[in-house]
Amino acid sequence: MISTRLLNLVRCPDCRAQLAGEAPALRCLGCGRVFDAASPDYLVLKPRDAFDETTKFLEESFHADGRDETVSPPLLSAAVRNSMLRQFLDMRPGDVVLDLGCGSGRFCVWSLESGAHVIGTDTGTFFAREARSNVDLVVGELRKLPFADASVTKAYTIDVLEHLSLEGLQ
Asked: What is the DSSP string of the chain?
């Protein structure tokens, strides 16, 4: 999903300037870079310079079994983490909540009932159908986020940082 609200929050990951145009094709008003998404369901706002360190989750073969295509109800450990996350963040209408490294977007989908504006961002495009239809999604880099300063009120990451080295986080 690409909402007008999302379009008002995103910025060029390279120069931080506003983006203009109609989704999914956007142009940076600062450096002139054109961002053209391959899908009408999410924005692709990756920085020009790629980071050397990546994750196995970007490999097509990792997703070949299709387990990320749909969102199941939270069960077992996922239910515990989801409950703790909701309690800790206390998401409310008016909040803009960013899921850093959202993967399929399942935690985003599970958080929609909070009334908060939930945005998922990931370096890959393996988003579940429910996430593509109901959540604002951005393909980007968590080390160079494409969002306006102070536009996000709450953020979280689950099962992401352990895939990067200390040097990769700097």
From this structure: ---HHHHHHBB-TTT--BEEEETTEEEETTT--EEE-S-TTSEE---SSPPS---GGGSGGGGTT-TTSS-PPP-HHHHHHHHHHHHHH---TT-EEEEET-TTSHHHHHHGGG-SEEEEEESS----HHHHHHSEEEE--TTS--B-TT--SEEE-SS-GGGS-HHHH-
At 49 the pLDDT is 86
CB 42 within 8 A of CB 138: yes
For the chain (170 residues), the mean pLDDT of every run of 10, in chain order, is: 93 96 88 88 91 66 71 78 89 95 91 94 90 94 92 89 67
**pLDDT value at residue 55:** 65
How many Å separate Cα 26 from the centre of its chain? 17
Closest residue by Cα to residue 12 from 29, 122, 4, 50? 29
Distance (Å, whole) CA 40 – CA 152: 23
Name residue, tokens 């992401």: 160
pTM: 0.84
